[in-house]
TrEMBL record:
Keywords: Membrane, Transmembrane, Transmembrane helix
Highest taxon in the source lineage: Bacteria
Record carries keyword Transmembrane: yes
Transmembrane segments: 12-31, 43-63, 75-98, 104-124
Stated name of the protein: Uncharacterized protein
């Protein structure tokens, strides 16, 4: 079967997996250091860490399939969009409880995730366009 998965989708998913893995490990390993610096309770950082490691594994598994399953890619993009929306909600409703570095960290991660979601969506569209050309 011919590989119909454009490189952009695969590459952006792998970057997403690496970013999620790194973030998850940072939350787990440095939770006790990050907590006072951000005012995010350690238990939330530990929970985020575990969730991010599971998400990273799922994204990596999706990215390494040939062809990439479009439904799984859409679910990952949806999860990224949900992360960005949740980050906005946290900043609106709980931002005053966080330190300035905590607020900035949440904003920077949300921006990175939004960029990844956008690039993944473009890659998914390219994959669909290539599939239509080969049919």
């Amino acid at each position: 079967m011919k590989d119909r998965s454009p490189r952009l989708l695969k590459t952006s998913l792998l970057i997403n997996a690496a970013f999620s893995l790194t973030s998850g490990l940072a939350c787990l390993v440095f939770a006790d250091i990050l907590s006072p610096w951000t005012a995010i309770p350690s238990w939330i950082l530990y929970s985020l860490g575990v969730g991010l490691l599971l998400f990273a594994a799922d994204v990596a598994l999706t990215a390494t399939r040939t062809p990439i399953n479009p439904l799984f890619a859409k679910i990952i993009i949806g999860a990224d969009i949900a992360w960005v929306m949740a980050s906005v909600g946290v900043l609106i409703f709980f931002g005053s409880l966080l330190t300035l570095p905590g607020q900035l960290l949440i904003e920077l991660v949300a921006i990175a995730v939004a960029v990844l979601a956008t690039v993944q969506a473009v890659g998914l569209r390219q994959m669909r366009d290539v599939a239509q050309l080969t049919v």
